[in-house]
Amino acid sequence: MSHIGKLLPFLFLIVATAITYAQVPEQDNRCLDCHSNSTQLAALTEQSERFHIPSDFKEQSVHNEINCTGCHADPGGYPHPEVVGLIQCGSCHENESTEYLSGPHGNPLAVSLDLAPKCGDCHNVHLIRRSSNVLSNVHVKNEAKTCTQCHGNEDQKNNILNITNRVDYDMPNRAIKKGIHFLDLKISDNSNPLTCSRCHGVHALSEKIGKNWQSNYSIEADFCGECHTSETISFKRNLHFTQEISSLSGNISLTCTDCHQEHLISNDKYQYNEEKSAGQMTGKCIECHQSVRISRTFAQNVRGNSPTVDSYHGATNIGGDLFFSDCSSCHGIHELNSYTGKDKESVKFSIIAQCGSCHPNAAANFVSSPVHMAQGELLDSEESIARYFFLALIVTMISLIVLSIIGDFYKLYLRKKN
Hints:
The chain is mainly alpha-helical. It has 24 helices and no strands.
């Protein structure tokens, strides 16, 4: 066989490949003749905006080497059927598809009712860019905007799956954009910021949040501890963590988000207001410490509706003092001061030392009366005597005034009668 004869199979393969690849752009061009022409689409369908495709989309898409029929079933002629095959991203992206179906977005009921978000809802359908591209829907700086298309959309609030069972479901449009993690994302060049997917996961959303966190609340502390190491170490040493583990109290357990919230997480670095912050902290503590259920679970006394507000420190807040003491001033923040197991004298000196941080002349009389005063609770001290005296004086004065008025009316009555 001549040399030319030996080369013929290779030449045939090269020519066939060239013809095949030459046909791909031609096929795509045929699709774009209609789908990039808004006027022509409008004449063919009422959903022209949905089916419109920019003529240069391939130049920007990661799928620029895939022709239209690589994702869509070959329409087989023109005009093609109204539905041209469903897109099956999982045929190429198998791992991502498996993860998606295992998470809440891939809920079988939601998928069957066409309520579940699809790949294109997050990644876009045709203009699919890499996540590292700042124009991508799933770029770290665009994640919140993408997620709020559903989470924060009033139309999604009452759908059949009741996906709004959390109070803060619609928060992203309001809360997250005011939170420290979002502010940090906007003003910093952090290459690994805390975005939606850092907490919730990417495709299998239940990996980091949801059922795992509900069944073992220490997972949340460990996750936050990836960045907030010292705070987590301190938190795991305080009663909010250790007592709840030993009591096996289940859903009563306290976690980071119970105090800081999930999304509207403030930070004094950007938006600290001392008066507001102290008031919020006191209110947040009272939410649990006035709860009958929680107090019974941990064998603690319920001391009125708002014991701190009724105390002197609470009164200074009501009076407008910008630097009043809140719960953390005495108890600490993450590693709470605990007097459990200490004898009476040790507790006494510990409290005096704590008071001395604000009151340099603190002495034994600082612990002679209750620290938290419940509503209706009177002090067994000179202060209570003064309180009784002034209450009696006020009642007496008001009574005399009322009697005087009654006497005047009686005199007026007698004059008219005579």
